[in-house]
Amino acid sequence: MISIKNVQYNIGKTEIIKNISADILPGEFTMILGTNGSGKSTLLKLFSGTIAPVSGEIFYGNEKLSALKTENISKIRAVLSQRTEVGFPITAAEVVMMGRYPHFNFNPNKKDQDIVHEVMTLMDLEKFAHRNYLTLSGGEKQRIQFARALVQIWKTGPQTISYLFMDEPLTGLDIHYQQSFLKIATSLLHEKLILVAVMHDINLAMQYAHKVIFLKDGMLAAAGNTKDIISEELIENVFAVKTTFINNPHTNTAIMIYTEN
Amino acid sequence: MYKKNNIFFTVAIIILIIVLLCAIAFGAVSILPFEMFYSLKHFFTGKEPANIYEAVFLQLRLPRVLLCAIAGAVLASSGVLMQGLFRNPIVEPGLVGTSAGAAFGSSIAFVLAAGMSPQIKSFTGPFLVPIFAFGGGLLATYIVYSFAKTAGKISATSLLLVGVAINAAGLSGTGFMNYIARDPQARSITFWNLGSFSGASWLQVIITFIVAGTVLFIAFKSSKQLNALLLGDEEAAYLGTDTNKLKKRIMILNTAMVAVVTAFAGVISFVGLIVPHIVRLLIGSDNKKVLPASVICGAIVLTVADVIARLLLTPAEIPIGIITSLVGAPIFIVLLKKFALLHNNPSAND
């Protein structure tokens, strides 16, 4: 479990995250939503330990995140950023192998190679293995990066809790890969995985998220079970957009439609 | 993949050996293989060289070729380190002030030396210029880094911009020293700025070898972290790399290594820029391979340039920097164009 307690984050005098407390449970897909500039990415970075809060505490289980060593965290925590560019020509397989860097010293061993192969096959990426990463499309790059994040925390052991944070992971993906991406992520969920993503699409959140966190102006607007939390009122309150929820007869889940012109 | 790399390394090493042998053999005085052999034999059995050819080989040609090869290896691998560290394909030691600072330092030394009494000169020996150049190179690079740093982080863009400013300052300093120097010193300054291995000695070879060997060994051990940096600072940190520590360590080691070479051989531009690109084109960007490959290829390129510098206008000698710049500048422009096309997305450029 991740707990954050009264976490505050400022840049200069601007308050980005204002006194937020929240818990994230393993085995659930948690999504962070909110307006542009509401602090979603910042909150994710606080969760992942990329940045340290100005005040307040972040706990991974019972341990303070600030007390954990970078090299130890990197074996159990992976982060998928919005867009990852590489400055020089390098093959896609080499990029994925970088996810195994925390696990070997100088040369990858058999286990590392097997994991890279397994994940790339799972994600339908084998055909890109020897392609130059620079020549891939935005969506293809994003899928390679997802594979890299996955191999980093693949098979960490039955007792270890692992953490996967994703910042708008669907950027640049077509609807086919949006669905397939979230399906793979959901299928990977197990009781020892903490999975958090910053998202924009409310309908996808309703389809895939177990828990949602809504941010507005750096404050918690709402947090809890997706079904209990998301409502027309919340959407209007956070985004100032009028919507209505209807039932999708094929999946029997709610979908949001816009009711304003 | 692995097979391809093995072939690359085998071929490169064979070429390097051939190039080194040719570089030793050709010159104002040609040295034949059996003369090399006897010269070494006499040396190791403690005898004096039997003739002028053996003496030329042992005291002039061999240290020169070795210093040149090591310098090429240093400049090329330094290019790999800097480009990797700043995720920028056009960084090289010359752009962050090392060379300009060294040039300014050496020009001060040349002018000072002219005014010194013979007693002091015998005390400083042949190391006055190298020491000033080394100090100047370190100082200028340090100034560039400290100005380029904002909020504890160093961005490639500000590094290059501050580098331009410090380079201009170094250049004007050198120009001023050149202006107030008397004729022979002014000429020395000009020559030094164009680079040459004509003053190579065994002591220089040994110093450069020890410094370069140590630095490159440490850098090679860090090649995994350097690879992680390809993804950017933040991503590298997620993969367990302490990026600030890595950057600081590599930068200090790299600057020391380049400053030593510049101190002995003068300013030699473009080798550090171009060799890494050629290597990446041939074997990809895995620093575990790029670094050793650049060591070999840098040695080949600079040794060939030195042979050309010696032979083109025999018996006169052209400064080696003229050769590397003449060949390097057009290649640099081609690379620049190519990367501009690759990175037409502006967000990818920082």
Give the SSE map.
The complex is a heterodimer of chains A (261) and B (350).
Chain A: E1 2-11, E2 14-24, E3 29-34, H1 40-48, E4 55-60, E5 63-64, H2 70-73, E6 77-80, H3 92-98, H4 110-122, H5 138-152, E7 162-167, H6 175-188, E8 193-198, H7 202-208, E9 211-216, E10 219-225, H8 226-229, H9 232-239, E11 243-248, E12 253-258
Parallel strand pairs in A: 3-8, 3-9, 6-7, 7-8
Antiparallel strand pairs in A: 1-2, 1-4, 4-5, 9-10, 11-12
Helix pairs in contact in A: 3-5, 4-5
Chain B: H1 2-25, H2 33-44, H3 52-86, H4 98-115, H5 118-124, H6 128-148, E1 149-150, E2 153-154, H7 156-180, H8 183-194, H9 202-221, H10 223-229, H11 233-238, H12 243-265, H13 271-283, H14 287-311, H15 320-342
Antiparallel strand pairs in B: 1-2
| N-to-C order of helices and strands of chain B | HHHHHHEEHHHHHHHHH
**Structural domains of chain B: how many:** 1
What is the CATH architecture descriptor of chain B? Orthogonal Bundle
Intertermini distance of chain B: 31 Å
Structural class of the helices, strands and pairings of chain B? Answer: mainly alpha
Net shape of chain A: globular
What does this structure look like?
The complex is a heterodimer of chains A (261) and B (350). By secondary structure, chain A is of the alpha/beta class. Chain A folds into 2 domains: 1-76 and 159-227, Rossmann fold (3-Layer(aba) Sandwich), CATH 3.40.50; 88-155, no CATH class. Helix content of chain A is 31%, strand content 29%. Chain A has 9 helices and 12 strands. Chain A has helices at 40-48, 70-73, 92-98, 110-122, 138-152, 175-188, 202-208, 226-229, 232-239; strands at residues 2-11, 14-24, 29-34, 55-60, 63-64, 77-80, 162-167, 193-198, 211-216, 219-225, 243-248, 253-258. Chain A has a 6-stranded mixed sheet, with helices on both faces. In chain A, strands 2-1-4-5 form a 4-stranded antiparallel sheet, with helices on one face. In chain A, strand 7, helix 6 and strand 8 (193-198) form a beta-alpha-beta unit. In chain A, helix 3 (92-98) runs parallel beside helix 5 and helix 4 crosses helix 5 (138-152). The longest helix of chain A has 15 residues, at 138-152. Chain A is globular. The relative contact order of chain A is 0.17. The model of chain A has no long low-confidence stretch (mean pLDDT 90). Chain B is mainly α and 350 residues long. Chain B has a single domain, classed as ABC transporter involved in vitamin B12 uptake, BtuC, CATH 1.10.3470. Chain B contains 15 helices and 2 strands. Chain B has a two-stranded antiparallel ribbon with strand order 1-2. In chain B, strand 1 and strand 2 (153-154) form a beta hairpin. The longest helix of chain B is centred in the N-terminal third of the chain and has 35 residues, at 52-86. The radius of gyration of chain B is 21 Å and the shape is globular. The A-B interface holds A 48, 50, 70-71, 73-75, 77-79, 81, 83-91, 94-95, 98-99, 101-102, 105-106, 130, 134, 152 and B 1, 83-84, 87-89, 221, 224, 227-228, 230-232, 234-235, 237-242, 280-281, 284-286, 288, 342, 345, 347-348.
